[in-house]
Specification:
InterPro entries: CheY-like_superfamily, Sig_transdc_resp-reg_C-effctor, Sig_transdc_resp-reg_receiver, Tscrpt_reg_LuxR_C, WalR-like, WH-like_DNA-bd_sf. The protein is α/β, with parallel strands linked by helices. Helices cover 47% and strands 12% of the residues. It has nine helices and five strands. The two termini are 37 Å apart.
Length: 223
């Protein structure tokens, strides 16, 4: 990263933005530390590598904004956002992602994130995102807000959702066929269409996706 110093003049009385970082990669932490220390608007209070450490820090420390990596040592950014909401910690978070998957951004927005930037963004973009969030604004990359709730499950029909629900309850193909009055071959046909829509290869992957998204949306502010 190319870093340009933006240090404030000695006559500036504005308080520095207090930042904490949660990121499992020590090289990313080192780069962030160098960036923030080269810019006089920020004060890096602490850096941790796990979600548990961050949540403990958030409950006990006063800071303006947290920069949280998408993948931590023990949980991902969605887990962190969910726990922050559940515990009513009231901290402002910028997710610092190295993954350009738009689905991750949508998930973070559904979970109430205030800021979102990428590790490959230029330093000024990262700085302005952190500043905006610290000052009470929301700063995320462009996203069609009408599609923010689009998920793999949102593309399913009512019947396909019902099928996925009974799969998660452990029903076999024979049980589904017997209880719905259709043949096992028809059940297999419907399952193949379901797997194709969810972009998964088998029953276990479909059930895991269903359970994961159900857990996320049950705690999402917009869910």
């Amino acid at each position: 990263m190319n870093i340009k110093s933006g240090k404030t003049s000695e006559g500036t009385a504005e308080r520095r933005v207090r930042v904490v970082v949660a990121e499992r990669n020590p090289f990313v932490v080192s780069a962030l530390r160098e960036m923030l220390e080269c810019d006089g608007r920020f004060d890096l209070l602490s850096a941790v590598h796990s979600g548990a450490q961050f949540l403990e820090l958030a409950a006990a420390t006063q800071f303006d904004v947290a920069v949280v990596g998408w993948k931590l040592a023990d949980m991902d950014g969605a887990d962190v956002l969910t726990e922050v909401q559940s515990r009513e910690l009231g901290v402002r978070i910028t997710i610092f992602s190295n993954d350009h998957d738009i689905g991750i951004l949508k998930q973070c927005v559904r979970l109430g994130v205030q800021g979102y930037c990428f590790q490959f963004d230029d330093p000024p973009v990262i700085f302005e995102t952190i500043l905006a969030v610290a000052h009470g604004r929301i700063c995320i990359p462009y996203i069609d807000i009408n599609k923010v709730n689009d998920t793999p499950l949102s593309r399913l029909t009512v019947r396909e959702r019902e099928l996925l629900a009974v799969l998660s309850d452990g029903w076999t193909n024979l049980q589904i066929a017997t209880r719905t009055g259709i043949s096992e071959n028809t059940v297999k046909y419907h399952l193949k269409n379901l797997y194709d829509k969810l972009d998964v290869r088998n029953r276990a992957m479909a059930v895991a996706l269903y359970a994961n998204e159900k857990r996320r949306t049950s705690k999402s502010p917009l869910g």
